[in-house]
Design a protein that fits this description.
This protein is α/β, with parallel strands linked by helices and about 160 residues long. Helix content is about 35%, strand content about 35%. Strand 1, helix 2 and strand 2 form a beta-alpha-beta unit. The model has no long low-confidence stretch (mean pLDDT about 90).
């Protein structure tokens, strides 16, 4: 019986490895991108922290001097907006759409590996006028989650450059 269970686990592991499955956040960047410089002046502090963390997990060598870098990551445009998507009978907002837009570029030596790649993520937020303070905190948490997702998408796009 133990032999069958063991063979089942081995078979499942082999199938997952064969299909390209990997844990979320476990990406390996192409070697030609390291060492990498992140232009932190071009982005929000939150995005910089998320990118730095994701890139370190992917094995990238990050440096502080752009002149010594093999590649440079720069955010060309970053914006957070909020749109009303539903109102109550008194005309007060009941639901918002939180939108995060970003355009980034990756320069490798004299070449532009990624030029103006655009990411746009949205999440909906229900608004309860009786819990205004809670809504502000929830909005911040949602934007933090969106920014973390954006950082992962940037790293995935960089990983696809192999």
């Amino acid at each position: 019986m133990h032999k069958i269970q063991f063979l089942g686990v081995v078979l499942l592991t082999t199938m997952l490895a064969a299909c390209g499955f990997h844990l979320r956040g476990s990406y390996e960047l192409p070697a030609h991108l390291s060492p990498l410089y992140i232009d932190k002046e071009s982005m929000s502090l939150q995005l910089f922290r998320e990118l730095r963390s994701s890139l370190k997990l992917s094995g990238a060598e990050l440096i502080e001097d752009a002149a010594e870098a093999a590649s440079e990551l720069k955010v060309d445009f970053e914006q957070q907006t909020r749109d009303v998507i539903s109102v109550d009978s008194l005309g007060r907002a009941r639901e918002y759409r939180l939108i995060y837009r970003l355009t980034f570029s990756l320069q490798t030596g004299e070449d532009t590996a990624i030029d103006g790649s655009r990411i746009e993520l949205t999440r909906n937020l229900l608004f309860n006028p009786e819990t205004v303070l809670g809504v502000a905190e929830e909005t911040e948490l949602i934007y933090n989650d969106i920014i973390a997702d954006t950082a992962r998408q940037i790293v995935q796009r960089m990983q696809a450059l192999e």
